[in-house]
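Lecture 7 notes: from sequence to structure.
We start with the chain below.
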Amino acid sequence: MDSDWSQGYVTEVLYTEHFFRELSPAWLNYVAVLNGCQPRPLEPGFTYLELGCGLGQTVTLLAGAHPQGRFFGVDFNPAHIDWARRYAGAAGIGNIEFLERSFLDLTAQEVPECDFIVLHGVYAWVSAEVRAGIQRIIRERLKPGGLVYNSYNCLPGWAADGPLQKLVYETARHLPGDATQRTTAALKSVEELVGAKFAYFAAAPSAGKMAAKMAERNANYLAHEFLNEHWTPFYSSEVADEMANAKLTFAGSATLAENHLELLGGDDLQAKVKAQPSARLRQLFQDLAQNQRFRRDVFVRGHAQLARAAIARNMDSQVFGSARDLKSLNNMAKVARGEVKFDEQAFPAFKELLGQGAWSIADLRKEVAARKLANVDVERTMTLMAATGIVVPCAGAGRPAPIPADPRQIRIPLAVNRALVKRVADSLAPGQVVSTVAGNAIGIDPVFAVILSLCSQPWKDKSELKERLLSEVKRRRIRFSKPAKEEKPLDDPGRAAQFFDRFWSDEVPILHRLGVIAVES
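Predicted structure tokens for the same chain:
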């Protein structure tokens, strides 16, 4: 006997395992600071709620990165909550609680007042009644000055492709199989229509291309994207109006580049957007300029624009670090407009400093002055580096001792990271580790996780470690992705040796400066 408790939402297959760094409290605080709002204090503690947490990977890892915080994940799918609790338990993360609740059923007594409330991709997938429930929760549970992250499918980007979702949804309803099988088959049938001279696909060629591209995505994700009964893309102004029901005001975008109009288009485009009389209209024009199809909006509860002195103090305290290899960086970065160029004399100094760890803007100014680098706008440089992905906003400064020339030991200080590394090494599937410095999680390659696991055992030198890795590759029959065309083909031991060298040259410096590992002589 069949029964349906789904409220029009896909429940027969799990959502995908994903981590979204933009949901980090440290990241959201930076968006607030950048746009003249007051950030939420992270010490000595704060409360964080994710609505529609899915499998709970994001909220769990953020709890691990912020042990002083109290985290809650809510989802109405019991299979999601069961998976999330197991995941958090296996990682040994205790400052998180998962609730199996509908947004219409969650009561004020079950969650304390929150500093942060986030929901990723949920808003465009649920009914108007459920959206009203989300607004109620925010209105009742968000502290004054609290921050909200709400990401959603938006217009005008989905205007041409929106009928594709409807076509897949209606087609899939009449097909056999589970949700993933029906979605895959529906997308295939839609692809076949492209060559049948349907006027829609002639008028909207992007829809046909999208159908072909989507067919390559994870099947569980596709089911959740296409088979929700209430799927609705929104204009940013419509979401802003609904968020106003909870006394929220738009603050900025968690897609950091979108806070810098000069990176998104030429002078004429910028002038047209800036000429609009309200922030509401400027955001709408900006979406039109980019043909925006997905937004990551950050809202604040009550918004009193800070005075310049307060904004400057907050920005001076803002910390940045780098979660990428710095050796190959030059002073040019690609943006929607084309390229942005950083000061040629100062850029090597910034690379050197960021290679040491995470710095506040105030401390970077002191270093720039000590090096007698003239006419360097440190604040603008760091905010543009963040917008272009060179640096990330961090929870706190941290500069560990330099890596010894001849390291003899690598430790993983946090128990949660030891558990996460083991999980990735055992499964050989990409995963994350947490950084309390960044207040976020960073990806780790499975082979790097295997090497870290081997490092936890006594070892004399790198040659011994490399031999252990080669033995592990052989024992577990680890296979590597196909090398790029320009690379000389290598057998698996050769690729393993390549990964080993990259681990020491690229990965160790990143993990070390973010506090994930400690390297000792």
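Points to note: The radius of gyration is 24 Å. The mean pLDDT is 91.
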